[in-house]
Amino acid sequence: MSFLAGHSAEPSSPLSSRPEHRPGSPLAVHGLTVAYNKKPVLWDVEWDAPEGRLIAIVGPNGAGKSTLVKACLGLVPVVSGQVAFFGSSLRRSRRLVGYVPQRGSVDWDFPVSALEVVTMGRYGMLGWCRPVTRRHREAALACLDQVGMADYAGRQISQLSGGQQQRVFLARALAQEAQLYFMDEPFAGVDAATERAIVDVLKRLKENGRTVIVVHHDLQTVRDYFDEVLLLNMRVVAAGPVDEVFTIENLRKTYGARLALLEQASSALADLARVS
Amino acid sequence: MSIGHESGVWPSLGETLHVLTFQGGFNTSVVLVGVTLLGVAAGLVGTFAVLRRRALMSDTLSHATLPGITLAFIVAVMLGASGRSLPVLLAGAALSGILGVLTVQFISRHTRLPEDAAMGAVLSVFFGLGFVMLSYIQTMATGEQGGIGKFIYGQTATMGVTDATVIGIVALGTTLASLLLFKEFRLVCFDPDYATVLGWRISLIDLAMMALVVAVTVVGLRAVGLILVIALVVIPPAAARFWTERLWVMAVVAALLGGLSGYLGAAASALFPRFPAGGIIVLVAGFFFLLSLLFAPARGVLAAGFRQLRLRRDIASQHLLRGLFEAGEAGGGEVVPAAALRSRVHGPAARLALARLTWQGLIARRPDGLRLTPKGREEALRITRNHRLWEQFLMAYADLAPSHVDHSADLVEHVLSSDMVEELERQLKARGRLPRHAGPPPSPHPLASGA
Amino acid sequence: MPITLASFLQIDLPAMLAALLATVSCGLLGNFLVLRRQSLMGDAISHAVLPGIVLAFLFWGSRATWPMFFGAACAGVLAAVIIELVRRLGRLDSGTAMGVVFSVFFAGGVVLMEQAAAHAVDLDADCVLYGQLEDILWLAPTGLASLLEPAVWADMPREVTTLALTLAVVSAVVLLFYKELKLTSFDPELATTLGFPAGLFNVLLMVLVAAVAVAAFEAVGSILVIAMFICPAAAARLFTDRLGRQIWLSLGFAVVAALGGYLLAASAPLWAGVPSALAASGMIAVVAGALLGVAVLFAPRYGALARAMRLGELAEARERAAAEPLATNLSNR
């Protein structure tokens, strides 16, 4: 992997310059290429997320929506490219970044209560070895209340419904008090009450000037819920305000024929990365 | 089978050859044959167990045989029979081994505990129970308890013809059975869901597989011991995996490696009766595993490293060739001054590539710089064309800006197969962007001048 | 042998203390192993420490605590690293990688041990496999009164002090990093995004497991250590949905297993009619297993019986629900 990065850092033609990024942008993705074998891939993604907006990432299955989020957060290996948060590295801005993973990503049989899960969102502020104090537990409870789950604080998480579990995850992200949130398919398979709760939270986050990036699969609701949209299908098809970008033409491009060659090349690249 | 060495004295070459060529006495030879057959059978059965991810289930099973052995011993002695009767002890071992596997299945099916916790618990608790019974046997006045210890570490030195015969028969039987069930095992290992759709009873096939593992494990106890017999089931197949991508080759290699480990291990323990046979056999198998991991051409570590080195060299070569070509294109003339190439030729891989290209006659060194030979020009043309075709593709289909495509194409040109190039040409032609002449299309972005 | 106060203090008390400290240390860590589905890593590491122990022994020529501890911890961590390497480089599944590595390590240990035995010293395979709880003696106390003298305590057997120290270290680490261990066990991805690297805690846990496996192997042996790691925690898992409660419960089970197992083995002459005591370490594993067995069958909510009954009720309710409309239909007609 290292040699690929090193190699790409030395473009064959020095004149191929790239646009400069605004330093304050909450998320700046630069030339991000992610290649797995037979998994969603990303091809040279170039994107600046505008601050204080609700942004949907939209694209067909296997377009690499979750991969983009995970690659930004350093959860999957990257072939080349850089990601900057608020003009600096992820390491430096961890406190500013919150994450709501897909519901299937954890063991819901784990022996913790809903409140304890939400309290985990505060761990980043607590730092190493510090125990959880009353103040943080109260803050966590307030977050649970915001998503309408205060009555379930003491419940073991496996005894919650799918929508309630999703709201617990949302409350945990709120407890992080981050500036930028990533949410991976929060609306997937939830009940109407949960959907409303999530939309409420999104609105409130926006009012407080936070940026929220949501992997979204429901085209019907994009216009209602979001300000900005990123159309993704292995590469960025279009990005910008919903009114301008969310057009039939762009959607056809996004959901059109898959670029088999791009996939094939990525797969070959992944082999190359694995060999090294 | 005792050849009678003092501890610490090495056997002579003659003695070693004697044992290895089955001339070390009838008993030694029989044991050698028996353990070799055991290795073959375990390797074959283990191939399926490993592919079905049952490696640690086999471990649980073998640990769980101890209470069966001790209970069979106690019952036999209480009934007035000999506690050393091999069939009785092995029957006990098989029963409690199966009971252990069933317990694991019960726990993981009917409670929230994961399978690995169930396996660990069953393994250790059954073993503990066996140990308690062993301490009970120590208090019995039979004078036969010494035989039990052989089941824990294994000892070939005291094996008799009967032991070896039992091993041989069971080994032949399991080999035959796994050959007969080859098709079923293959499908269940690869795609159990599909097997279900075909109407096969997966649980039945799994049961047959575990029964074969039980058979091999139980007869292996005497030779290898119950803690290490799992190694014969797991290590040879894991080693064989490095040599091939085909199941039947893997099975054959696993059987060969297993047989060889058994043969060499048993011979070594005939020469050094002091050492527990199980340990030696497993170390031999482990040695084969290490060799396979490092040196196997198909999936070995060194082979992968070598491939990577070659890839790096090729990438550097292609990079250099395209650089020279583009420099010529940009109007720099035939000979490119060395100074202009400095950005391209740095690092050991690039220098190696330069030396190799010169040696192959693709690049000629001139006092004032480098020049592509006609042969080199042809190759450079091909590479540059692939690069530009990919750039065109990215612009036409992936809507990337011209200023971006060079960076993206830079990596891909090295992995484009001829099939992919054909597909590229087809798609570009469909959009009318394939150049009519055979040469590369012009670069969509400005090239670095002078270099 | 009649039990006197002196014989209890000299023979039974140190053995019980050693068993207790060993099972409690193992039980504490076992909670995390079971929750992370790494139970078998405990198994693999406890097998793999053997060559480290024997090598340290051969090198230093005595059963001094620290060299053996060092050797074993090195072997345990080395095995964990090699398992990971073999898994990645060889592209094998983790079960196979574990099976290969720990059996080769153990085989190496067994063969080395014969080498050690050739030097006529007191390290034999059996004591490594089964431990030697019965050989832990505390000769200093002669009666209750002697317990007040500091000199008597200074003479505490080495195994017991080592185990006490191990338990202290393990408890301190778990207390200090409780929050981090909980987070990385539940959601390693979130932990990583919050700046607590999940991989680091995995390594920490493995080092602790290796250390405990080494400290405990003298008392309960390398295979029975696995029972202590898994059984109390697994049993507690079936009784509660709170991590804190689960840990306390598992410690309780560990205490019951240690004391119950030891007493059951020591009192065997009374109930089994054998001339001497049975193996205490094995009996501790059996009691731990029995506790787990009871939990598996009878735990109020998550036991097999309770589940079966719930399923039965569900099926009954469904049948009733299915039958009802039919009945009303019939009566309407």
Structure in a nutshell:
By secondary structure, chain A is of the alpha/beta class. Helix content of chain A is 37%, strand content 19%. Chain A has a 6-stranded mixed sheet, sandwiched between helices.
The fraction of residues in strands of chain C falls at: under 5%
Overall form of chain A: globular
Structural class of chain A: alpha/beta
Q: How does CATH name the architecture of one domain in chain C? A: Orthogonal Bundle
Number of H- or I-type helical stretches of chain C:
15
CATH class descriptor name of one domain in chain C: Mainly Alpha
The 3D shape of chain C can be described as globular
Please give the number of β-strands of chain A. 9
Radius of gyration of chain C: 24 Å
What percent strand of chain A?
Answer: 15-25%
**N-to-C SSE string of chain C, H for helix and E for strand:** HHHHHHHHHHHHHHH
User: What is the multimeric organization of the chains shown?
Assistant: heterotrimer
CATH-defined fold name of one domain in chain C:
ABC transporter involved in vitamin B12 uptake, BtuC
Spans where pLDDT lies below 50 across 5 or more residues of chain A: 1-22
CA radius of gyration of chain A = 19 Å
Give a topology summary:
The complex is a heterotrimer of chains A (276), B (451) and C (333).
Chain A: H1 2-8, E1 27-34, E2 42-49, E3 54-58, H2 65-72, E4 80-84, E5 97-100, H3 114-120, H4 123-126, H5 134-146, H6 162-175, E6 180-184, H7 192-207, E7 211-215, H8 222-225, E8 228-233, E9 235-241, H9 242-245, H10 248-255, H11 260-275
Parallel strand pairs in A: 3-7, 3-8, 5-6, 6-7
Antiparallel strand pairs in A: 1-2, 1-4, 8-9
Helix pairs in contact in A: 3-5, 3-6, 5-6, 6-7
Chain B: H1 13-20, H2 26-51, H3 55-63, H4 65-78, H5 86-110, H6 115-138, H7 146-153, H8 161-180, H9 182-190, H10 192-197, H11 202-224, H12 229-240, H13 247-271, H14 277-295, H15 301-332, E1 335-336, H16 348-360, E2 363-366, E3 369-372, H17 374-397, H18 402-412, H19 418-430
Antiparallel strand pairs in B: 1-3, 2-3
Chain C: H1 5-35, H2 39-60, H3 65-90, H4 94-118, H5 125-130, H6 150-154, H7 158-176, H8 178-186, H9 188-193, H10 198-220, H11 224-237, H12 243-266, H13 268-271, H14 280-298, H15 304-332
Helix pairs in contact in C: 1-2, 1-7, 1-10, 1-11, 1-12, 2-3, 2-4, 2-10, 2-11, 3-4, 3-10, 7-10, 11-12, 11-14, 12-14
